[in-house]
Amino acid sequence: MSEQHQRKPDWLKIKVPSGKEYVKVKDIINRHQLHTICTSGKCPNMAECWGLGTATFMILGDICTRSCKFCATTTGKPAKPDPDEPKNLAESVKLMHLKHCVITSVDRDDLDDGGSTHWATTIKAVKKENPGITIEALIPDFGGKQNDIRRVIDAGPDVISHNLETIRRLTPLVRSASNYERSLNLIRQISESGIRAKSGIMAGLGETEEEVFETMADLLSVGCKVMTIGQYLQPTKNHLPVVTYVHPETFKKWQKTGLAMGFKFIESKPLVRSSYHAEKHVTGKN
User: Fold this and answer.
1) CA distance linking residue 176 with residue 16, whole number of Å
2) How many CB atoms lie within 10 A of CB 126?
3) Mean pLDDT (10-residue bins), the chain, 286 residues
4) Strands 35-36 and 56-59, bridge-based pairing
């Protein structure tokens, strides 16, 4: 049964965005023509994060070349990368007085380097304009091209995250043009570089608990020590339906199990998204 025919449980109630800091962040983002995954991804934590003066910025436009069946981001033909975007983003981060910044992007399979050069330029610009800031780069898979991945690594973010999104069995159904093993290899490359590697999955798509634990083991085997787990919410009727709403106590159990398995940090709650409380993931300690 699809999500729109089920009643959402009380623990999935979302706050309506409001407050002075929320308005301030929204104004900065609009004035500098920036994209955020907060809005395009319909993040349930937007009210909380923007209210605290933080946001996850999305570079390389808001149109993706892939059409994953869980994602609310628009699919189509993207515009050319904006050469002023790195500078504009760096200045916006400074105006917001951020100590930690999360940067992500759509997939840009239309570009020869997958957008990795623009990624590196942006990270370096943010670091130069904001001395002492820590940065998480939440990256696409760049088609598994190691040189493109290395370009982002060499830019020196503090954390590089790449989401598996779901368990191995469901990957072909959930993720467009993506591959479970390719993602694991990417995460391995990150961890072997010495940068903290992070990943995340959505729950409620039909996975079993055993498969969740298998995914944890897969991530640990490639050196990933930080993980997020949150409830999948169906963006529109054209996206995959929710199979089940996972109870908060189950999320707590998964967190406890993951930490016992060897993760340094697991954020596991119904409304958790990959960049939620991301500043904590720099050290990777609960």
Assistant:
1) 31
2) 25
3) 60 66 70 64 62 76 90 90 94 85 93 98 97 94 97 97 97 92 98 97 97 98 97 90 96 98 95 75 62
4) antiparallel
Nearest residue to 42 (alpha-carbon basis) of 4, 66, 6, 73: 73
Q: Which burial class, exposed, middle or buried, applies to 112 when counting CB atoms under 10 A from its CB (0-12, 13-18, 19+)?
A: exposed
CA proximity to 106, closest of 93, 98, 115, 97: 115
CB count, 10 Å around CB of 128?
12
Burial class (CB in 10 A: 0-12, 13-18, 19+), 174: buried
Query: Is 138 in contact with 100 (CB distance < 8 Å)?
Result: no
What residues does each domain of the chain span?
14-282
Sign of the CA dihedral running 206, 208, 211, 215: positive
Decide if 164 contacts 219 (C-beta within 8 A): yes
CATH number 3.20.20.70 is the correct assignment for the domain at 14-282: yes
The answer to whether 72 and 41 have CB atoms below 8 angstroms apart is yes
Entry field: residues in the chain: 286
How far is it, in rounded angstroms, from Cα 44 to Cα 16? 9
Hey, is 254 helix, strand or coil?
helix
Q: What is the pTM of this model?
A: 0.87
Q: Whose structure tokens read 């993760």?
A: 263
